Amino acid sequence: MRLNQLLTFALVALPMLSQAQPNTVRHAQLTVQYLPQPIDVEARVAEALKSQQRSGNPVATSELNRKFLRQDAEFQRRGATLKGRVQFATDGTWYESETFAPFVANRVKALPNWMRYDGNVTVTRNGERTEVLTGDQRGLYVTFGDSLFLFGRLPEQARETKRTVANGLETVEYQGDLGVIAGQLTRVVYRNGVPISAESGRASDALKYPIARFRTDGNKVIVERFAGPNKRLVIETYQGFSSQPYQPILKLQPGDPIIDQRFGQEYRYEWAGKFQAPPSPMTPEGNPFFTFWVASALSGVLIIGYGVLKRRARSHSGPATA
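The chain above was modelled as a monomer; its predicted structure follows.
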């Protein structure tokens, strides 16, 4: 095992620092509009296949792969509307949610999606697939606007960089890193200390091209999400927010299959109450040649020991006497 692999193994295998859990869980009803996009389906499929082939993807030319790419392109062209219940919980460091995403292969069925970052690892579940990743690897709901308007508070990483007051409104800018988006900038507008709108994006373009926009409308929170310069993809409407005492949102049951990717490669096991580290290469479980190596080493020790004893016996024996 290389030195960097040993260091990674040792760091991840150490007992993790305890992180306090959130006190409450926020519930809401969500309606998601996936907006129709003006695309050429066949051209999009052909472009995706060429890209996969250039990257050496072995399934790039399979008919099944082509079918899935066409389903996704057709979904983007016509759009869809999905509805369901969602949950959010945070204490500023611990983030946990249950949302949903379109399952395009089944005529746009809503597929539940769970996520948890507990201050040490990120755990995601989509369908039956549960993955464990080192650090904050969240890819959904990772702008400061999401934290404030959906989870209910700004993250610990948000640092205030600018504040202005005009016409009875207070505008505050926050910067920092969160999830997979580094260098974020979020501009929040408050009325009487209550956030009423926000824009989130990257500090590098000073919100010229926002990733998401947030606004309140009565008891509703409306979110617009973008991909590229002013290319709006999704409109999310949350309403009926309520809070309850915290209960785990992402629940792992004994025997659930886990795909653990904290060690540089997939390590699979069944959930037994805690995350597991791969067996050490110095154990029979972690090395199929362990027994052979031990036997070989012992044989070498015995042979060397026998030779040393034999030489000592010769050196201590005197000349023969009559």
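Residues 290-316 form the longest helix (27 residues).
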